[in-house]
Amino acid sequence: MIDGSTCPKCGGRVSTVNGTEYVCDDCGAEFDSADLFLP
Questions:
Q1: pLDDT above 80 (res 3)
Q2: What is the pTM (predicted TM-score) of this model?
Q3: What highest taxon heads this organism's lineage (predicted)?
Q4: Which terminus, N or C, of the chain has the lesser number of Cβ atoms within 10 Å?
Q5: With contact defined as beta carbons under 8 Å apart, do 31 and 1 qualify?
Q6: How many CB atoms lie within 10 A of CB 28?
Q7: Where exactly are the structural domains of the chain?
Q8: Angle, CA of 22, 10 and 39, to the nearest 5°
């Protein structure tokens, strides 16, 4: 998972500051790496 991946909720761009927690730049949803790797 890297910056620029897509948000599972809105399809927007997801970014990370520490590599384990991610925030969607578009809708503000927060995820951890497991949320984004698991279906």
A1: no
A2: 0.70
A3: Archaea
A4: C
A5: no
A6: 11
A7: 5-37
A8: 70
5 three-class SS: strand
Q: Structure tokens of 7?
A: 């948000």
Q: Which helix (H) or strand (E) holds 2?
A: none
Residue with tokens 């399809």: 11
For residue 37, give the H/E element and its range.
Answer: helix 33-37
Specify whether the CB–CB gap between 25 and 15 falls below 8 A: yes
Contact status, residue 26 vs residue 39, Cβ threshold 8 Å: no
Distance CA 25, CA 39 (A): 21
Confidence of residue 38 (pLDDT cuts 50, 70, 90): low
